[in-house]
Amino acid sequence: MADCALMEAAAPPTNPADRATVRRIAETALTEAVLYDGRADGPPGTLVIFNPVEFRAEGIAFWGQKVVEKTGQRTLALVSRQSHWYPRDDTLALIDAVLAAVDLPQPVICYGFSMGAHAALKFGNRLGARAVLAFSPQFSIEPDVIAGEWHNLYARHFTLALAGQCTLRAGDFPPNSIVIVDPHEPTDVSNANRLAREGSFRRIAAPRLAHQTVEAVASTARLAGMLDQVRAGASDAELTRGLLRNRKFAPTYLVSLATRLRRARRPLAALSVLARAPAHKHNVIALDLGIRLQLATPDEARALIDACPAARLANEKTTRALATDLLDREQTETACRLALRALLLHGHEGPLRLCAEKLLRDHAALDGLRWLNPPREATAPAPLLLVRARLLRALGFGHDAELLLRECLRLRPADTGARLQLGDLLIVAKRIDEGCAVVGAIAPGLLSAGWIARLERLRGGTASGG
Known about the structure:
Blueprint: E1 5-6, E2 22-27, E3 31-36, E4 46-50, H1 65-71, E5 75-80, H2 88-101, E6 108-113, H3 115-122, E7 131-135, H4 143-146, E8 177-181, H5 186-196, E9 202-205, H6 220-231, H7 236-247, H8 251-263, H9 267-274, H10 282-295, H11 298-307, H12 316-328, H13 332-346, H14 350-361, H15 365-371, H16 382-394, H17 398-411, H18 416-428, H19 432-440, H20 449-463
Parallel strand pairs: 4-5, 4-6, 6-7, 7-8, 8-9
Antiparallel strand pairs: 1-2, 2-3, 3-5
């Protein structure tokens, strides 16, 4: 059993005016327990929240805090300190400490998304939950358990220390567990199907939300409404109708709808839909700008990229998605202009590499040199030098490519890609000793087996005079 520390603040406040407080009541090395006392006018019972993988313990903050504080719902949050899928032994020790320190008035409802949904199911019965709300849960992240399954996507979070701790079992969750998944999301459907072998639960379909099913309750009113439905014993049909009503506010759904409209050649309708989505979401930005660039003439597209606020290109996911979309639509010049601006503004290298691969496949290296040409007042960064060197070499300008690669290594001596390119260029030019020396400076662990064999062969040939 994991060591668990109870906090001195475990006793509730004695002054009724101070009831709505947040305090840490227990902790282990991996997880913290935070209690929000709620308000007298709040909903009945206790909400137990488990956070998703991207959330981390920080002070006494917890996932969903703003929403529950607005409702006044008494809430126990088990907050992870790392992406651990709430290991069974560690979390049970924490739950036992919590149950010994505070009361959890019924009805108890466990709630979580993704990693948190897995935990809400895993500890539902131990917490005495009357119901579990699990949005897109994983059945397991243990490679031995999920080998060959769709849901092995999450196995990358597994470590040997978690062996036997991160798989759901029969008896973990109550029959009134509500699992919400998108029926078109293979990974989540596979997890739900595997979970069905361990026990009965209620499956609710939330189509066109992909993994982000929790977006359907991502507001105070929508989450409170669903919790009220669960407490009132709503049927599956009633829960489904409520989710589908709320889905129209979900960014993932709006992006899905806009994408379908764009494919149906209704770009203006797609832009109208995106206007209802949160403007800061990277997939919203990428799709909105992509549609506008698709509708623009080349001159308008250049002006649109140049005038695009830097903040809209700050997320590399946005610029990668947008560059991919432009390249798929054969708008290579516009994609190069976007990649160059994203690199100079924010250092994003991904879009630039995508453009380089496309240019080389299309034998358009000369166009690429023209499009990927930084302003004179800007100092060309190393990634741009690397790409321009590849394009020059493809055109047969080996000497110019060598100069750029050496400048790139001056700026970034540890750049493995530049060393490999320069080494290959020198070896092909019959400057074998020089090329081997350049590549040989790379740490062996960073060299592929093919490069190691090539160096051994070249060095052996040199030593024998071959």
